[in-house]
Structures are given as C-alpha cells and as structure tokens.
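quick one, 261 residues, struct below
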Amino acid sequence: HAAYAQDQAPAPHLLPGSLESIVSDVSIEKNGEIEVVQTYTVRINGHRLNGLNVTLPLRGDPCANPPRFIGARILSVTRNGTLEKWTVVRPPAGVRKPNILRTGTRGVHLSDGEHVFAVRYRARGQVRESGPMHEIHCSFGGFRAGVKIALARIRLPEPVEFQKVALFTGRYGAIGDRAHVTEQGAGYVAIASKGSLDPVTGITAVLSWKKGIVNIPPPTEAEIAAAQKQRKHEKEFNCLTSSISKFDLAEVIGMELSLWN
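---
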C-alpha cells in the first residue's frame, strides 16, 4: 500500500507558512460518484504569498481494463467563506504528473494570519469491485512542510457497516501507523492522524462494504475515447502507467499541498 505518491506529484516552489489542519469530507453516493470537500487551514507569517497549489484527481488509468478515467468537476473554491479565484495548471504533453488546482491571483498577496480554504468537487470512477465487496482507496496528502493534524470523514449513501477500514501513513510505499479511527458507525467513519505528520507524508484509507449499496457506472463513450487517446499518447512518449501501477492516480483524493508566490 502507498500512503502518499510523493514521486508522482509535481514540485511547486515551497514557501514559508504552516498548515494547521486538513479536513476531508468524502460522501460516496448511490450512483458511484463521490463529492469531496477539502478544508485547509493555513497560517501566513510575514511572507508575500498568493494562494495554494492543490493536487487533485483529474486523471485516471487508461491502461486498466476497462480503462478507468476520473471525471472530476470543481464545484467551488472559497477562502474564509468567500469565493476565491482558481485555475487548473496542467503538465506538459508526455509528462506523467497530475494536474494542479491553483488558487488566488499573482501579485495579490494573502494577509498575515490564518486563512481557511475549502475546495469542493465531484469525481467518478473511484469505487471499484473487490470480490464480493465494493472498495475505495482515499489518500489525504499533506503539506510540503508538514501538517499539525489531518482529519477525514467518509460517508456511504446508506447506513451499512464498513467491512474493512485499513489505514497507512508515510511516503510512497510506506505502511506507517500514525493514523487511527476516531469514530465508526453505520455508513460512517472518522479518521485522524496521531498528532502532526512529517513533510510530504499523508494518510491512505482503504475502505470496503458489501455490494448493492453503490452502483458503479460503466465508463462513458467520451471517457473511453479519452482513455484510449491518452494510452496511445503515452506509448508514443514511452511513459506508460506501469511506472505508477502501485498507486493509481484514480485513487487520490488530495495528494499534495503547497503555497506559491
């Protein structure tokens, strides 16, 4: 298991500042889509910073059978309760790295003190079959300078018990135990880090439940066409997804966070 895909993330310039907390609310819906709200509390101390870089699951695995493709739709980005300007920064052609959601505007600096960012989006293609169960892998990434506390709350559309809740922490491939379940009930589980997390580390949660609660929609024609096009493109650039087969980008909820200026 991989708690954090460090070597798959882009490397935005790290700037001073502290991440006080990450709170991830994940709602798994009956139609197989998920809705995610990621809340980041950041403290700025005397530095000219413009906003956040957040890695989001905007790409999938075109080499899966059938191809798995993430269709993530950004619904809103707010800062301190007010809508915030944002854009998506994409890697160059042939570069196997995820997209970056960038908040703020160059030259418009954040004031000193605490800022609460909330990113809300929907995604499909993350629930998978695992024998008689349905399963989802959720990875909650950290800050390049570490995070004081990471929390996650995952909900099913019906009040049924999770059959498995496995947690791992650390960098890519690690199986650390710096996370624990703080609350669990029918169709609900809450997870927290055991104190602060080191730089560039995160939590991976593997959750499963009985089939019949969530429907997994087949890929649309547009998604299959996009995946086939990407597969052809990656063959031409010799960058097939086998290099990241241990950590499918389609499983990433929020992989990395940094500040930019």
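Confidence is low (pLDDT under 50) at residues 1-15, 237-255.
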